[in-house]
Amino acid sequence: MKISVQTFANLRDYAPAGAGKFKLDLADEATVADLLAALRIPAAVEAVLLVNGRRAHPGTRLNSGDEVTLFPPMEGG
Amino acid sequence: MHGWCGKIIRVDLSRGRITYEPLDPQVARSYIGGRGLGIYYLRREVDPACDALGPQNKIIMATGPLTGTAAPTGARYVVTTKSPLTGAITCSNSGGNFPAELKKSGHDAVIFEGGSARPVYLWIDGERAELRPADHLWGKTTHQTDDALRSETHAKAKTAVIGPAGENRVLFAAIMNDRDRAAGRAGVGAVMGAKNLKAVAVRGQGEVALADPAAFKAVNTKYREAFKIKTQDTPPALRTHGTAITVVGTQSHGVFPTRNFQQGTFEGWESIYGETLTQKYLVRAKPCFSCPIACGRVTRIPDGPYQGEGEGPEYETVYALGSDCGVDDLAALTKANYECNELGLDTISMGSTIACAMELFEKGHLKESEVGMPIRWGDGDALVRLTRMTARREGFGGLLAAGSLRLATRCGHPELAMVAKGLDFAGYDPRGEQGMGLAYATSPIGGSHMRGDPAYFELLGVPVAADPHTWKDKPPLVAKWQDLFCVIDAAGLCVFFSVRYLVEQDLMVKPVGITELLNAATGAGYTPEELELIGERIFNAERLYLQAEGFTRKDDSLPPRITREPMPVGPAQGMVCRLEEMLAPYYALRGWDPEGRPSDAKLKQLGLR
Hints:
Strand order of the largest sheet of chain A: 2-1-5-3-4
Distance between the termini of chain B: 27 Å
Radius of gyration of chain A: 12 Å
Helix content of chain A: under 10%
Structural class of chain A: mainly beta
Number of strands of chain B: 17
Low-confidence stretches of chain B: none
Oligomer: heterodimer
Largest interface: A-B, 24 and 45 residues
Radius of gyration of chain B: 22 Å
Number of helices of chain B: 27
Distance between the termini of chain A: 36 Å
Largest sheet of chain A: 5 strands, mixed
Number of helices of chain A: 1
């Protein structure tokens, strides 16, 4: 299934060719953890995980067409 | 004393007299400094019923025990006064280098009282302070004033000044220190202007005496190392892209205020957020005193109609002068930011007031003949022009200078002012971020995010993530974070470092690291629990002052747009802020009665009775 992914700041480093926004093919019933593994994001790298604008966690099940957003925790605005 | 200098400067502007007084060690221990000292002196000395722009009001500029030390982000001071914008207390916080320089001059705080017949500035040269004429500085911008002061006092002097906006008593005028850092909220600059006080310049070459220098060094190193280790894997986004990267957090959650909070997603967000700023206009990152993060932005717009150079924009400015006005032109909003800095305006209230005017105009409640030009959503030229007109109170700028609530009320639609207690919201729509709604409504200064910022755990994943859409769990979290922010603001630290490194990394944020730093600096022997109690004391003292000013439960409120109009689009679609459901449990756990008044038992526990 196709998932839309958008990464920001240092997490861009794990996107294909540094693109911020891209599509990723994942097996049906894949989870956010599978997506992180596919992008080779090490466990030590912290990320805020959103699926369709809602807070997610590594165990969150993905569905075809989902939009996933990844950004580092931030110290403030 | 250690950590504290033990000395305060009192400036009677009416008589032109300067006196020095000791800081009572018991008061220092009980209120720490900064925001704590501010409310302590305000309650003792300023009649809550006074005219904020009259001579009875005072301005308390206070550092904390860690200001001017090597503690990470020991750079802050707090300006406390009665606000002319809201009629409530305000305590506005700023970093840069001026606060550390003030501390190193050997003073914990400066209290200004009365009013001068002629423009003056205060020059603090180490232990000695004097008032000097400032007629020649009146009318100058903040940058021009900083240049002039450093040429006539000392090349390395640090300054806190007002621009034309403060002189003209614009009700949301800021005090700008180190040219581009702002004690911005709720009109502290207008109070200076009303007192004919143009500036403070300070040269301080002393060092802050520490109770246990070796222990202080060890604690300081421990937390700086923790920062280094954490940022090896995750470089701080704030250093790379500035606070404007926070757009990612708000837009993705659907709480990025757009067109006067009509919705929480902005179609033009990618044109104005931090990474675009980095690519297009960033010259360099600029840290405040003793800060390892360096979120400040020196920027330059190389050409075009908005050509210029300065600092910013911060996230709050990108929201207020950007999405909230429908402006997706980064150059225009950055130029308006430069103008705000040089004229001495709070970018949040400036943007929010223009956004309110734009909605009034678009809906026909404000006519083109009253404004002098059309002001449509997204008009970057209007943004820059209105900013200049506001600072100088030219034409329609005179109405904007009174702030969004007065403008909207004058047009018959007070509900279109996005404020709590008359202070414009920061850049978070509480419909998709329930805790922020409670924080805005119960903040002692009104619609500020910096009085216990739930965006950290609701949006930004710090220290851990909580669901922004739930409300039943928020009252205890908001109260805990409000008290924590009192401690941070009293200690002289910046929230940005403190919430990730100097507190336990769970939602209860016990201030362990702050305790260690304060104890090594002051020798006071605080426990984290005592600091939490002091935070609660400061928050309740501010509440008492609000009550004395006439604020009641009905003022712990949000506009109907936030509590009754469901969010129309985006991830928070269909939601309203459940403020009423949160308020009662919040009051109860704070030990306040159903009208929001602290109980006698609570006040006794906090030593406020």
